[in-house]
User: Fold this.
Amino acid sequence: MDAPTTLAEVLASLPEEERFILTLHYLKSLRSDEIAVVLSVPVRSVDAVIASGKARLSAILGI
Assistant:
């Protein structure tokens, strides 16, 4: 499988939950506490997903 080359491909390669939370955070500019309310999950869980997603994106993009 070829490495993703566009942002859309990179986002599509992420697990659904991670992609959804990162989209809300970075593209919709929602804070962690706002995302937690929307998803009915603890803020810590949202923060953990954002951190792991950010690390995964960095690894995929090589930055």
